[in-house]
Design brief:
Length: about 200
């Protein structure tokens, strides 16, 4: 029994490790040593949605399906799709990042911060939970750090793939909640790596 539990635990760790991959695009995590504050900006341009040609096609499909069931629900879905970014995903990223280490912090609208951290979401999969079946949300993002007064002066850039998000005990029926957990996972992984390699 003990061996079985150990094996299950090892498989879970391996799956989690495999789920989120990082590829440094420019510089090195060591280049971030000594940076204590990052002005945070989010970018959702050119967003890829799996199984759709683009974000517009995704929204058209989801809105049409909802409108068939209930008039007005399509527009409501579209509004929440965009508002969730500022109201749920971004606060979750900030909270998850800042609660781990006091040495370095992120925040929006910090013009005096010498460096800016841009989180460019390149892929977003909402996942699903229909009770008997569920699939976690997934987020791909490119994190770029540059001089606040000179965005072309890129110090470091890294791409993360498959930051998965779901709720504890399976209570994650709301897609916005699942996606916010992906951003929490992304922030957690990034903060831990900065702490490990740059401090």
């Amino acid at each position: 029994m003990k061996k079985q539990l150990t094996l299950v635990f090892a498989v879970l760790i391996a799956a989690t490790t495999f789920a989120q991959k990082a590829k440094v695009l420019k510089g090195d995590f060591k280049d971030l040593k000594g940076i204590t504050e990052y002005n945070l900006v989010f970018d959702y341009s050119d967003l890829e949605i799996p199984k759709y040609d683009n974000e517009e096609a995704f929204l058209e499909d989801k809105m049409a399906k909802r409108e068939k069931k209930e008039a007005g629900s399509g527009e409501k879905f579209k509004a929440s799709w965009f508002s969730d970014r500022e109201e749920r995903y971004e606060p979750k990223f900030i909270e998850s990042f800042n609660k781990r280490y006091e040495e370095f912090q992120v925040g929006k609208d910090l013009p005096n911060a010498e460096y800016t951290m841009k989180v460019h979401t390149t892929l977003l999969y909402a996942g699903y939970n229909v009770g008997v079946m569920r699939q976690p949300s997934k987020v791909d993002a490119i994190i770029t750090i540059y001089k606040t007064d000179n965005p072309d002066d890129v110090l470091f850039s890294v791409k993360y793939k498959k930051a998965e998000g779901n709720g504890a005990m399976g209570y994650d029926f709301d897609s916005g909640y699942r996606i916010s957990e992906s951003y929490a996972k992304l922030a957690k992984t990034l903060a831990k790596t900065i702490n490990k390699k740059a401090w």
